[in-house]
Amino acid sequence: xxxxxxxxxxxxxxxxxxxxxxxxxxxxxxxxxxxxxxxxxxxxxxxxxxxxxxxxxxxxxxxxxxxxxxxxxxxxxxxxxxxxxxxxxxxxxxxxxxxxxxxxxxxxxxxxxxxxxxxxxxxxxxxxxxxxxxxxxxxxxxxxxxxxxxxxxxxxxxxxxxxxxxxxxxxxxxxxxxxxxx
Length: 182
Ligand code: HEM
Known about the structure:
By secondary structure, this protein is mostly beta strands. The protein has strands at 34-42, 51-60, 66-76, 82-95, 100-107, 111-120, 123-133, 140-151, 154-163, 169-178.
């Protein structure tokens, strides 16, 4: 009989050594699998002073040719003390046989991005193909992201933003380190 309380029988894997095995199409992004944490700096012409933030990012899969992506950030002061929650987002990165990536990413600020790009040799580049906004969301026109695996434990991230009548330009730069469980 169907038991609704039963645990989901197909949990996500966070690493290559976990079941299920990653789908072959995930090869160009398999180095991202796992949980990453680190710090970044950000700014934008409309928001005054630059800010420093901490961030945690997780990429997982369930054996099919897409990644589940989840990220949350919080602002910190010069000592690293948390100040307040900041951006959160989650989504799906669909990997195509030629290394193209189609990403769907949503944010609680009323922004949904459809981004397309490419994954090759540890670099994943994504740029928005479409942005959908809820009626009260800030006017985001485009974003551009680049994730660079510096080594197996280090992930650099940059994020450019065209929004609130500003041209595409830097919003965020971060360096994340792989979080190991042992
Ligand atoms: C690590 C991720 C991010 C952090 C830490 C961050 C941080 C910030 C901060 C601190 C502000 C100033 C407003 C405030 O104090 O809350 C801001 C504004 C903004 N951010 Fe981000 N952000 C992140 C990701 C994003 C993403 C992914 C987008 C868009 C897709 C985005 C779009 C915007 C926009 C449109 C504004 C408003 C600018 C304005 O109204 O002048 N941010 N962000």
